[in-house]
Write a structure and sequence with these properties.
2 copies of one chain form a homodimer. The first copy, chain A, has 419 residues and is of the alpha/beta class. Chain A contains 10 helices and 27 strands. In chain A, the strands form 9 sheets. The first copy, chain A, has a 6-stranded mixed sheet with strand order 5-2-1-9-21-20, with helices on one face. A 4-stranded parallel sheet of chain A has the order 13-12-11-17. In chain A, strand 23 and strand 24 form a beta hairpin. In chain A, helix 1 packs parallel to helix 8. The first copy, chain A, is globular. The interface between A and B is large, with 68 and 68 residues.
């Protein structure tokens, strides 16, 4: 009889686990995801800043497994997990498993201030990316209409909270749009008057990188017109701005790129979690007392060295996914499981046109070389031949013309508006 | 002093009028549109059926006029028109004009049953196209989950109301998706079991075409798996289906491609309208008693021959736009205006892969030749080099692989969903 594996989550971790398992026809894979698409999240900021269309960085999960009849994909949310009975409950019923792989990732967190979300969307989903795109483009449209210079300044002020890679990418892209893409398109405002403020609570941007690269990124952002405020903690977000203790800034567009918290599914497993809600896993990526349940990706807390846990990065998630899949296949062959070992290929962040930073072991690179490396790697990893080619051409076109191809303001309501 | 021209509406008519006027630096053009983008509406059904991304058929209006400093674009809705004072009121204030060009087009109409819209969206905007795409793709996802064969059949039933070009295009595309694109992607359902029903109140499909072509289109649709019901009038649309007098069909996805009514702005002009709310215009496209106000495009009722009015087609709108612009420039030169003459280049409709019909004067063509003509003309007319190239490649890719590039289910709400 076939071995039943349920994979929850079609992100980098879950997709890679399912791919490994799909090749063995004795395994029946059921892949569950709330959404119908796998998202290439490292490029989501490009959708939010009108550089790419959502479809260019997303693939229907089921089309990834077209050729694997032993993989079934359902667009469903998991309601409960019963580890005793080895079954998963969803809205459409319950599904039994021999092995369960959980890879539901992380959400952004407002540190207990969920009411800020309305004024400061985060960037994790396609919906959020198009909402941010709508807000950025709409702000310029409003500013063009307004005569009051103070109000105009509010609309031309953009605050990005969080100086990690996403915050840096967003800040850089907004500065570039305002200074190049939109330059000739407005009559009443000077888009170059745009104020882009990048706020970081810690002492420096991009804390995961070496300090020299972090400094270089700050300088690059400055040159592009981004103002960086470090050691600044947000205490309130409202419709028209942000407060930082005693200081405050008026801005109509605020974007949240600060906190991350683990998917709430971890809490349903009744197993130890770390401080940020991640599930603590064994060396083989399974739960401490349940070798039939694996947790991988951003939801997993894997201790690489004593006290040092792997960060929530796409390469970690992909490698963990493949490792969990392989360990199940080893079980089926009656061979011992392998302990997971992360092969660190380095980290990189892009800042803007021809500006990026890269850190591989002791090697630290900034500038145009790092940017080309970033470009190459991101195009290479985009799933599916088509996306890769299209994204590349879209970029080539943007690069040559300084234009952005997806400058659409799309309303939230689709209904007919009469009158 | 510069002559002030206000153009309301950035569709085919308004955009072409503004382009003609933009070339004369003595004219100051103010272009008002509720949306920030010009939409290539003839291809909107491709967005609704996951073939193209919204950005591939839409261009920011203001980027069309980047190089014309005498054109100002505002994203605004017109609230009122005062023809005595020669001014237009919007949310941001009032704007004076010497000439006013109104090109706000048409909406779809539910013949007094606006409550049907929730269950049967129409196809005029990007928002509606992505909503229809969401419903079509979601229906297949639901059917894959369900075990009840009756409920499954409801989810796999698609009703398109209206047998004009849009209805035919949608029905053909949905049939193709279900029979080719999705074929290998589902395990539990056979997407080829999809029921696509095209409903037309009149005696035949595509009434604007010669009867022979209309028959050919019906046969082509039949071969593709579309069931056509003519002389069938919808009497009720609900969440789970459609009623036609005594008959009824259960279907979870209903799309409205039936009625069209003129934009409500026509009523604010206090000038004679025709039965469907269109504004009756003079030979020069201006209002009967007001040579300073032009109405063009789908909102205009232009009497070509006694009792025969021009239809609401993109080529009519484009030609009217250019003619209205030229007539204003003739005024400025002190020369007499020209009467508008529509140069009929024929009509065409696409049915599916290598299937289309075309009627040019006495020439009637069906099949692959008409399809290539349709393809060529639509790519050619797409505004902007980039869109043209990208759309062509997207199509080439879809054609070769039978895939569709934009199969995204995007939610209406962008907010974080926890738990």
């Amino acid at each position: 009889m076939a071995t039943k594996v349920i994979v929850v989550g079609g992100g980098f971790a879950g997709l890679n686990a399912a791919k490994v398992l799909a090749r063995n026809p004795q395994v029946e894979v059921l892949l569950l995801d709330r959404r119908n698409h796998h998202l290439f999240q490292p490029l989501l900021y490009q959708v939010a800043t009108a550089g790419l269309s959502p479809a260019e960085i997303a693939t229907p999960i089921r089309s990834v497994f077209s050729d694997f009849p032993n993989v079934r994909v359902l667009m469903e949310e998991v309601r409960g997990i019963d580890r005793q009975a080895k079954s998963v409950t969803t809205s459409s019923g319950s599904h039994d498993y021999d092995y369960l792989i959980i890879a539901t990732g992380a959400l952004h967190s407002y540190f207990g201030h969920d009411e800020w979300e309305n004024f400061a969307p985060g960037l994790k989903t396609v919906e959020q990316a198009t909402e941010i795109r709508r807000r950025i483009l709409f702000a310029f449209e409003e500013a063009e209409k307004i005569n009051d210079p103070h109000l105009q300044k509010e609309w031309l002020s953009f605050v990005i909270v969080g100086g990690g890679p996403t915050g840096v990418e967003l800040a850089g892209a907004i500065a570039e749009i305002s200074r190049t893409t939109l330059e000739k398109d407005f009559r009443h405002i000077d888009p170059a008057q745009t104020r882009v403020l990048l706020i970081e609570a810690g002492p420096r941007l991009l804390a995961a990188f070496d300090e020299s690269l972090s400094k270089r990124a700050s300088r690059d952002l400055e040159r592009m017109g981004v103002q960086t405020w470090t050691r600044t903690r947000v205490t309130e977000v409202t419709e028209d701005g942000v407060r930082f203790g005693g200081e405050s800034v008026r801005a109509r567009t605020v974007i949240w790129a600060a906190g991350v918290e683990a998917s709430p599914l971890g809490k349903k497993l009744s197993t130890p979690l770390d401080r940020s809600g991640r599930v603590i896993v064994e060396k083989d990526l399974s739960l401490p007392n349940d070798p039939h349940v694996f947790v991988i990706g951003d939801l997993a807390a894997f201790e690489e060295k004593p006290g040092k846990y792997l960060p929530g990065l796409a390469p970690v998630a992909m490698q963990e996914g493949r490792a969990a899949g392989r360990n199940i296949l080893l079980d089926l062959k009656g061979r011992p499981r392998e302990a997971f070992r992360y092969v660190d290929k380095g980290i990189m962040a892009t800042i803007g046109r021809r500006r990026a930073i890269m850190e591989v072991g002791k090697l630290r690179v900034g500038g145009i070389l790092a940017w080309y490396a970033w470009l190459f790697i991101h195009i290479f990893y985009l799933i599916g031949f088509k996306s890769r080619l299209f994204v590349f051409m879209q970029w080539a076109w943007s690069y040559l013309t300084f234009k952005r191809g997806a400058r659409l303001i799309v309303d939230k309501d689709w209904r007919l508006t009469k009158g």
